Every structure is written in C-alpha cells, then in structure tokens.
C-alpha cells in the first residue's frame, strides 16, 4: 500500500497549477468568442472535461452510474459535501454550474477559476440577495445547464449528512417540468484500503483546517476511490422549497448510509469515469 508522501504532493502541485492555468485560460478565451446564450453550456462542458483531467492527475477514481438526467427543463442537483474537491469529483459526471459562497469570488486564482466556469455566487447571510440568486439560477437553467448545490451549507466530517438548508430550493420550487436530483458522494478507498470513519475525517475539510493543508493532504495520496450514487428525481411542480429540501435530504442521507456499509473492489483500470450524458429521459425518471 502506498503511503502519503510530501514528495508526491510537491511533484503534483506544479503540474496541477500549470494544467489548470493553461486549460482555464483557453476556456476563458474561447467562451468570450461565443454568443452570451451559448457560453454557460460551453463553460460547463469544458469544466467536466477539465475535472476529468485533474482527477487522473490526482489519482482519483470516480465510480458513478451511467445515467441520463430527467426530462423537462434542467433542474437542481443536490449533494452532500465533505471536501473542497467535491466539485471537481462531481463535475466529472455532469456538465453543470455550481453554486459557491460569495467569498470565493475574492480568493486569488480561485475566484478567476470560479468565474471562468460559471460558478453562481451566493451570500448566504444576506436575505436581500435571495431574489437575485433565484433569478441567476433560473437564467442558468433556461440556458440549458443544470445547477448543482451543496445544501448543507458547509463541509462535514464525512460521518453523516447534515440537514439541508432550504434557500437554494426556492429557485426551482413550483416550476413545471423541472426536478431536483439527489446525489450522494462517498470516499470509499484510499490507496487500495477501505476508508474507515477515521480516514474519512482525515480527508474532510473540517473547521480549523486551512485550504492549503487540506489540498496538500489530497495531493500527497497516491490513489483514492470515490463513489457517486443517484436518487430518484423529485418533480418540483406544486412543491414548496421546504418539502423539496426535506425529501432530497432523506434520499441523500439514505444513499450515503448505504455506501458507508459497502466494501468496494478497487478498479482494475487506472481510473474509472462514467460517460454521463445530457440526454433526457421520460418525466420523473433516471435511465441507467
């Protein structure tokens, strides 16, 4: 079994920065050449492709079912959140726009990356901004891009799913033809060994742990396997945001508990990526 290594982390970091900067600069340049209405989907697709490259670089295997998103207008994907790298892992599955906290826009480099790939910023502490945020999400859905949020509002320790905040669900509550899709993400193996609760806590972005230390911990690990599991889509027509949040939370929590009890074989190939398409299926269904 490979051990955590400073040398591995230091060797990967320059490659990570170089590839990210080059790829993002090309994305920003090409996006500006497109009509505004085509830019969101282009950015989301480039994000998916780029995150698959980063996962290969980081030794991250993503195991997810090959599914099509529900029919109708694009909707909201909601997932649990334990690591700063969750968006990179989940973006390998779908071309989506993420929702992030507003302070990310002010971070050096990170803010530029977020803006290039179409992250929607939300100020969670300012209720006066909620109307503007709902409008932003709906505009992104109208552009044909699903939006992914982490309704826990923060990262957890990896032991359990925390209750969902309901604000983001307002953007799709009551919409005809739209949906909420519960998504659960679980760290299953590290360097070929099953991830114990202690291991999950070690790789979680917990309070008091700086972003740099958290990132270095992932960079110094040889191989990691994460599993993505999908719940049943929830139609939004006639539903209040609190009801949507409650049902989505129950599904994500149940899926996560199932994954915690499973032992998965490590992939025989170097990496696993699902080819998840944007093809739509029948109303209220997910095709496997």
Structural overview:
With 288 residues, the protein is of the alpha/beta class. It is 38% helix and 15% strand. The protein is built from eight helices and nine strands. The chain has helices spanning 6-32, 39-58, 86-91, 110-116, 130-142, 197-203, 211-219, 241-260, and strands spanning 60-63, 76-79, 97-101, 120-122, 147-149, 179-190, 193-194, 224-230, 234-235. Strands 1, 2, 3, 4, 5, 6, 7, 8 and 9 form a nine-stranded mixed sheet that branches. Helix 1 packs antiparallel against helix 2 and helix 1 crosses helix 7 (211-219). It is globular, with a radius of gyration of 18 Å. Mean pLDDT is 88; it is low at 268-288.
Briefly characterize the structure:
The protein has helices at residues 6-32, 39-58, 86-91, 110-116, 130-142, 197-203, 211-219, 241-260, and strands at residues 60-63, 76-79, 97-101, 120-122, 147-149, 179-190, 193-194, 224-230, 234-235.
Topology record:
Elements: H1 6-32, H2 39-58, E1 60-63, E2 76-79, H3 86-91, E3 97-101, H4 110-116, E4 120-122, H5 130-142, E5 147-149, E6 179-190, E7 193-194, H6 197-203, H7 211-219, E8 224-230, E9 234-235, H8 241-260
Parallel strand pairs: 1-8, 2-5, 2-6, 3-4, 3-5
Antiparallel strand pairs: 6-7, 6-8, 6-9
Helix pairs in contact: 1-2, 1-7
